[in-house]
Amino acid sequence: MRPEYDDAMTGPRIDLGCGHKKEGARARRERHGLPPQRQALDGSVRAEPVTRDVRFRRRATLALGAAALALGFRLYFVRFHLDFLDESAEITAAWLVSEGETLYGSVFSHHMPLPVMAGHLVAAISPTDRAEHFRVVPFLAYLLAAFAIARSPFERARPGIGRLAAALFLFALAVIAPCFWGHMLLADSLWGCAFLVATVSFLVPLLLGLSPTRWDAALAGACLVIAVSGSLVAAYPCALAGILGAAALLDRRRRRLAVSLVASFTAGAMGALAVFTWWLSQFGELDNFLEETVRFNRDVYYRFTFGEAKILPSVLYDWERYVREAPEHILHGDLDSWFLVLAFVAVFAIAWGAVKSRSHETGSRALLGFEVLIWCAAVVSLRVRNGGFHGFPFYLAVLGVLCVVAAYGFANRSFRSMTVFLALTLGPAFLFAALDRPSWSNPSAGGWESGPFGAAARYVRDNSREDERFAAFPFPSSLYLYARRRPAADSIYYFPWQEAWEAERPGHPSACTQLRNFPPHFVFLWPVPLWDRFQWGTGNWGVCIDGFIKEHYSRVQSGNFAGLLWELRPGESPPH
User: Fold this and answer.
1) What are phi and psi of 522, to 5 degrees?
2) DSSP 468
3) What is the separation of C-alpha 137 from the centre of its chain, rounded to a whole number of angstroms?
4) Contacts (Cβ under 8 Å, ≥6 apart) of 396
5) Whole-angstrom Cα distance, residue 422 to residue 403?
6) How many Cβ atoms are within 10 Å of 276's Cβ, its own excluded?
7) 15-61 pLDDT, tens per residue?
8) Contact by Cβ (8 Å): 318, 386
9) Phi, psi dihedrals of residue 367, rounded to the nearest 5°
């Protein structure tokens, strides 16, 4: 009776993976949920011991929650850090759309509408004149990307892997994102997140031999369309991602599954496109959309950024310089250059994992080299413009893939060596980011509106009616939000390339003509040079506007904004 009594009290022995397994023994994976219970001889109920898999899932979940809190605290701490005109333009355009203006109509913009669409939700839910409130958008985008990682095919391969990868991703962003202005409402942050979700939910699992579901394929298709709605630059990596997905599906011998995934991918893309088109039809001008985003950038803006050079040679030259200068910059702790090392590691990790997956998969290896080549091209094309905030999609993709591979390696013994290698490469990047003093400080804790811009905006708000228009030149667009006044011209920022654009559209009234026809009561003039190349009021930039202001307006001599705010002189045409 003694052996039977011991078995009844202690239950059958469970192999936790610490000892040697018996030949022929088959490991049982415990189902997710509460541990099973058993009844002893004395009638008491005792729970089974918690297995290593259950502990791994619980710890991964706790780590994910802690990472989300850490990212939230970090982004909240730097919510006033930097006031950048590109972000101000997107935020102001979003607020103006919520006030009844139309994007690409009464509000000029040569950017794709994704940041305005996201900011429009914030303005509609919580009307505010504080720009930092809109910075909740990138935080939510990072959380959604982490949720997609946590629910990716890696999580289904072994519960807990996706949650651990998502936690690593959020911890990495908490340290690194503000170093590259990733806390701002910028198109680069948003479309970079969308591309990352498509990568980790569909493309990378296909390369590593995992099986994404139809929902994963639909999510990837929708995210690629969302990425293109954030920036036209995203068209290059998104096209390569589509080619990569098609090649990886052709490499599978399950034709019916491949057709189902392609159909789901297409359905997701069409659904996102439908939402995008509906929003433009309601809050924008579809007729001017392609005119201002495609033709303007191709024919006018191109001349000011690339000059006479072609885009492809310029991008290749930038990459050649990036690679050539990286060794020296890495020694000086340059985080942007260190991401080049991380990119090579990410490419190698995916290629190595793809080769290992083919060793136990029935699929062919014929397209493996082509798939890895397309993967490399997609990673390179994420950095088409340059580093900094423009390169943030590149940093996001590299970080996300490395975190996924690190978690995958941590949970699989055959990938443990890759985990150690990733830790050695990610470590210095975190160290360089931690030493980036500006992103850990908060010099303008009172908010941007506490300076001269905010003081001028409050003066305008207190001395004008709500229905009156206001003008600010050449590019302090945030004043419209602070003053809560609509613009007197459709250009909420006025750059030299917009004046060149107006010269090519004689049928459309210029900003100067709009100002003359409907002169506002107040005008804010901030005549600073642009890129140290263009001087306001000289040459072909701002001569007409500057002359009109100085002819019909006088300076407001009060407050800390003296000399910047101009008021319409008595006896001049009253504001309409």
Assistant:
1) -125, 145
2) -
3) 10
4) 145, 189, 192, 193, 195, 196
5) 9
6) 18
7) 333 334 444 444 444 444 445 555 555 555 555 566 777 888 888 89
8) yes
9) -95, 5
